[in-house]
């Protein structure tokens, strides 16, 4: 009996050890590639928010990593601003720590003929099950929505998970974040916008059946993030979007 | 002997199909069959896992203490599934996101555990591998059938290729979960009408 027990424990330990060694090796070996893929996916989603086609129109396949990178470097600029002061942060004063603490925030803009034509910022917040991450793109008036994407979330597939579908995201295009010069609370309405506002509402989209909480969360965090960014947007509106180019040094 | 091995692989394809006859693993059969592409990746993932887990468990079958038999099986299966999941994440990022939790849920897929318990634990490695392969392929066949029906009816396309052009009126229910139940039900019905001699409890 003693012998059998010892054998049993030895076998269990061997299994545990070999499984953990194999898994650690696999995870460590693939980490670089996974991070690269994840970064590429983030960039694809910035492009998507800007309304850029990320599939080849002929083949229907997704654009390759190199193409995404090249569109990204040739058209998209990333700048940072300080949340407390609403001032632009020079590139050499951007710190990872401040970005993590959200004291500094990134803003992307799409450059065409030497001037910014669209803007996009990362937006995120707590979903029903896990944080939702996405990008919100705005037209040059910094009010009208040009596009929205959600690229990472843990919502239930088929219910809250529908936020990553085109039908949901395309509703946002053309809607507005402000009324009378002030940020307004955006709404995701269960049962449809037309039910509650027969004349339509430029600050609302239809909700997803069975995903009341997810819709509420999305409306909440995009409104909050917009409010945060608006302090910086005010300055851009005052000085004109071209002013951003002057200090870019590119 | 050759025919016996042959039977191990071909039996689960229809006469002893894990989904339509044993009604195992239908959770993922319902969940990832909206599009053929995701169903295909899921099929490959499951076939790899069930074949390898059968092989590994069979190799260890004479050393596994019977009291911790199932825990050992689950450890082996879980490790394999995590490896598959990590590989998908590194090489098929978008697909891995669409499959989300369902790859991870292969761990609890009854087919994998069922084959380990019913076959691999008492048969030699070669045969066990073949049994895993057969069951994986049997699962895949049904998954792809359901996915084809759902994608064609619901989206008018197959493997992302548009079939009917602009004027196609899609059958909305096919892409919803109830659509999967209906289609799977019909397939099980046909299978069981064709295969008359299955054992029903």
Report on this structure.
The complex is a heterodimer of chains A (250) and B (201). In chain A, 42% of the residues lie in helices and 23% in strands. Chain A is α+β, with helices and mostly antiparallel strands and 250 residues long. Chain A has one domain. The N and C termini of chain A lie far apart (77 Å). The mean pLDDT of chain B is 86. In chain B, helix 4 crosses helix 5 and helix 4 packs across helix 7. Chain B starts with a helix and ends in a 7-residue tail after the last helix. Chain B has one domain. Chain B is mainly alpha-helical and 201 residues long. Chain B has a two-stranded antiparallel ribbon with strand order 1-2. Classes of the chains: A alpha+beta (250), B mainly alpha (201). At the A-B interface, helix 1 of A face helix 4 of B.
List the helices and strands and how they pair.
The complex is a heterodimer of chains A (250) and B (201).
Chain A: H1 2-49, H2 65-75, E1 76-82, E2 88-89, H3 96-100, E3 104-112, E4 115-126, E5 131-139, E6 145-152, H4 166-170, E7 178-179, E8 182-183, E9 187-189, H5 193-196, E10 204-206, H6 212-239, H7 243-246
Parallel strand pairs in A: 9-10
Antiparallel strand pairs in A: 1-2, 1-3, 3-4, 4-5, 5-6, 7-8
Chain B: H1 2-10, H2 26-31, H3 36-59, H4 69-91, H5 93-99, H6 101-104, H7 110-118, H8 125-155, E1 157-158, E2 161-162, H9 172-175, H10 177-194
Antiparallel strand pairs in B: 1-2
Helix pairs in contact in B: 1-8, 3-4, 3-7, 3-8, 4-5, 4-7, 7-8, 8-10
Total number of distinct structural domains of chain A: 1
Please list the strands of the largest sheet of chain B in the order they lie side by side: 1-2
> Strand pairing plus helix content of chain B: what structural class?
mainly alpha
- Order of helical and strand elements of chain B: HHHHHHHHEEHH
List descriptors:
heterodimer; A: 250 residues; alpha+beta; six-stranded antiparallel β-sheet; two-stranded antiparallel sheet; 23% strand; B: 201 residues; mainly alpha; 2 strands; globular
């Amino acid at each position: 009996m003693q012998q059998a027990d010892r054998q049993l424990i030895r076998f269990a330990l061997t299994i545990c050890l070999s499984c953990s060694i194999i898994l650690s090796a696999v995870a460590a070996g693939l980490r670089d590639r996974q991070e690269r893929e994840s970064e590429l996916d983030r960039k694809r989603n910035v492009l998507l928010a800007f309304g850029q086609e990320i599939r080849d129109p002929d083949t229907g396949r997704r654009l390759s990593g190199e193409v995404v990178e090249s569109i990204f470097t040739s058209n998209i600029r990333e700048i940072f601003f300080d949340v407390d002061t609403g001032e632009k942060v020079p590139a050499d004063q951007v710190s990872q720590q401040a970005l993590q603490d959200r004291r500094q925030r990134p803003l992307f803009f799409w450059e065409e003929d030497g001037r910014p034509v669209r803007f996009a910022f990362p937006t995120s917040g707590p979903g029903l099950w896990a944080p939702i991450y996405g990008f919100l793109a705005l037209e040059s008036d910094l009010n009208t929505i040009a596009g929205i994407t959600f690229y990472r979330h843990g919502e239930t597939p088929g219910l809250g998970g529908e936020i990553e579908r085109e039908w949901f995201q395309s509703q946002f295009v053309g809607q507005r974040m402000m009324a009378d010069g002030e940020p307004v609370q955006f709404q995701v309405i269960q049962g449809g916008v037309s039910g509650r506002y027969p004349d339509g509402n430029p600050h609302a989209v239809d909700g997803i059946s069975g995903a009341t909480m997810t819709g509420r969360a999305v409306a909440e965090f995009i409104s909050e993030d917009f409010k945060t960014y608006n302090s910086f947007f005010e300055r851009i509106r005052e000085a004109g979007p071209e002013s951003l180019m002057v200090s870019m040094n590119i | 002997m050759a025919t016996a091995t042959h039977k191990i692989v071909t039996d689960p394809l229809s006469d002893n199909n894990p989904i339509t006859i044993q009604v195992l693993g239908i959770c993922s059969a319902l969940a990832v069959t909206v599009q053929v592409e995701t169903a295909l990746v899921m099929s490959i993932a499951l076939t790899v896992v069930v074949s390898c887990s059968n092989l590994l468990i069979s190799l260890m079958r004479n050393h596994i203490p019977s009291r911790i038999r199932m825990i050992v099986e689950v450890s082996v299966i879980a490790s394999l599934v995590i490896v598959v999941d990590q590989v998908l994440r590194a090489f098929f990022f978008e697909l891995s996101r669409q499959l989300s939790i369902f790859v991870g849920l292969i761990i609890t897929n009854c087919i994998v555990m069922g084959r380990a318990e019913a076959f691999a634990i008492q048969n030699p490695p070669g045969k066990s591998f073949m049994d895993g392969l057969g069951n994986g392929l049997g699962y895949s066949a049904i998954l792809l059938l359901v996915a084809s029906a759902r994608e064609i009816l619901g989206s008018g396309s197959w493997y992302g290729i548009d079939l009917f052009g602009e004027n196609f009126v899609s059958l909305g229910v096919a892409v919803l979960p109830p659509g999967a139940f209906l289609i799977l039900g019909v397939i099980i019905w046909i299978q069981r009408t064709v295969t008359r001699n299955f054992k029903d409890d």
